[in-house]
Amino acid sequence: MQAVSRRLGHQSLKPTSLKSVFPLYDQYNGAADQWRYASTLTNSRGVGNLVRKGTGGRSSVSGIVATVFGATGFLGRYLVQQLAKMGSQVLVPFRGSEDSPRHLKLMGDLGQIVPMKYNPRDENSVKAVMAKANVVINLIGRDYETRNYSFEEVHHGMAEQLAMIAKEHGGIMRFIQISCLGASPSSSSRMLRTKSAGEEAVLREIPEATIMKPAVMIGTEDRIMNRWAHFVKNYSFLPLMGDGSTKIQPVYVVDVAAAIIAALKDDGTSMGKTYELGGPEIFTVHELAELMFDTIREWPRYVKVPFPIAKAIAMPREVLLKKVPFPLPTPNIFNLDEINALTTDTVVSETALTFHDLGIVPHKLQGYPIEFLVSYRKGGPQFGSTISEKISPDSFP
Ligand SMILES: NC(=O)c1ccc[n+]([C@@H]2O[C@H](COP(=O)([O-])OP(=O)(O)OC[C@H]3O[C@@H](n4cnc5c(N)ncnc54)[C@H](OP(=O)(O)O)[C@@H]3O)[C@@H](O)[C@H]2O)c1
């Protein structure tokens, strides 16, 4: 834990009695002096054997009490919605404004979505948000570094800390870590290298943890199609890194949330396994951009930016980030780590476990998953026909 504290950049905290952190600890655990926090997830058969009540809808009881770290983000809203829809209680740790988890509250029955303010750098507050959970899901991640938080701390240090606390907890039946497709110690992107270190750290602590590695996610709040469309509306062209021939396998965000739920609901077969979650089709970056241009009904205009030039454009932010006494703008299209990641193809490997192994057929992107792009359409959203109207319903699973 000291190593984690060092990585998290704060002083090691004194071990604290759980009773002081959770005042109702005795009440919930019966025996006052029995320390339940000792085992790992070993021998657990997942949450498949939890007592369930009801028909499986949002007013049922699934028995799952999940703490979802990073629930306030893009994937978080779809995951919380799917958890709540089956009658799970979802504890939503949030930092900053009370508004950040507000949209999640309505997704479940009264009292089922519980926002809890926490500080990821305070071990006790992390313990408090995990105290009553039997499932922990870690979605915490960031595509860029800030003055306050490095990739190493967010992707590695925090994941390791959550796994250690979950292991000490003893009542956690499933730990699911969300990483990224392409995360590996040899990746050219520092962000992906730290994601890989996070996976390793989690598995070191909890070998039964499930790792999900989604490809770039597409959906209403995504950070690829929206950014491209926004850029095109402002500047009438799209910068294409390299020559746009890098292969990617974008995936619909709802499918990724469904994969997490499927893993949670199984009898423990997904425990200790790593899944690579890519969509049904492989696109080059250029082909994906064509799809975006087609949907927003703009004439496709590209400016090909060779990788060295793209990196040179993105570099000043990285160099100056910790040197200037004020925050720098969030990187948008020219994000050094994303550019580095785009220098190699990122597709699901042939031997990997995938959606198929979780019993899910991922959606094609053409159609509903990219329908949100019509809001960028010249002449208003109603202008012309959408892609989903143009393709046959049979091709949309
Ligand atoms: N989006 C993609 O295309 C994609 C693709 C592959 C993998 N992933 C991975 O999937 C996970 C979810 O992605 P997403 O798109 O939903 O991410 P997102 O929208 O950026 O949300 C990230 C979440 O992490 C939290 N977070 C970020 N930095 C934090 C910090 N320093 N301390 C505490 N919490 C912090 C954010 O909390 P705040 O709201 O408080 O900032 C937010 O809830 C991430 O791990 C990401 O790396 C994403």
Automatic annotation (TrEMBL):
Which GO molecular function entries does the Swiss-Prot or TrEMBL record give? protein-containing complex binding
Indicate the segments forming the NAD-dependent epimerase/dehydratase domain, all copies: 67-278
Q: Which GO terms describe its cellular component?
A: mitochondrion
Q: Name one Pfam family in it.
A: Epimerase
Source domain of life is Eukaryota
How is this protein named in the record? NAD-dependent epimerase/dehydratase domain-containing protein
